Amino acid sequence: MEDDYASFVGLMDLAMIHGMTFGEIAEYFNEEFDLEADLSVVQMKNYDRSKKYSELELPFVMPSPNMPTTESVDVYPVTGYFETFENISEGRGTAKPFQLIGAEFIDSTQYAKDLNELNLPGVKFRPAAFTPAPGQKVEEELAEGVEVYVTNTDNYDPVYTGLSIIKVINDNYSDNIEWRDDEWLAQLTGKSYIEEDLKNGEEVENIVEKWQPELEEFKETRENYLLYESSNLDEEQRESPLSNSNTIVWTIIGGTILAGLGVLCYIKQRKE
Known about the structure:
GO terms for molecular function: peptidoglycan beta-N-acetylmuramidase activity. This protein is mainly alpha-helical. It has one domain: Aspartate Aminotransferase, domain 1, CATH 3.90.1150. Helices cover 38% and strands 7% of the residues. Strands 1-3-2 form a three-stranded antiparallel beta sheet. α2 crosses α4. The longest helix is centred in the middle third of the chain and has 16 residues. The chain is globular and about 50 Å long.
């Protein structure tokens, strides 16, 4: 992460899709960023990190009012990037927040067709039309766009998918979209070049390639903090945060639970 873009949505270096439990990420923060917290992690019994959240037989508790279901949690790392636009709704103010993307100027049928033709793994798109509630972007206006369906959490890549659906909109509607002027995408991703690359029509694979060295370094560091084994992941899969089918759930909920540790990081930085 670039230091200039540390904010309340991301204070320290951490992969957006990290595939770690609360305890694992707490120990990661405490050690890697020298928080010196008096931390003790009580390990879960019989936990298998390869299981999907729905297989854990636990009730789902909303981590946010705008994430009312596991489906909305699954797509948040994809569509959360749309917060960077002033005039494109990410589904807030509807019954399916973050599952819907739309704006007045989008042709929903063509947009869905263009996205499905990308053959992105583990995800499909259907044309959709919706009207966000008052107080939200595109409020009380008919927005056309797509509904995002995650069909296979084991092989879809949320970050690549999210940048791809932005690229298609930018390629087709660059004269219509309004980017926020506070570099919000840079704050969400920690990278200043992503917005500029997308505006310039750069291919998503080239953008993603830029942070691969950092990602590989994170994967190696992450191994030091994994507390639980998996019953059905081979060594290659274990090394990839995306192979963990709990990845999306832990990413969103973990970020909320560990806000206190994030504050400690910030306080320590200010003191230094």
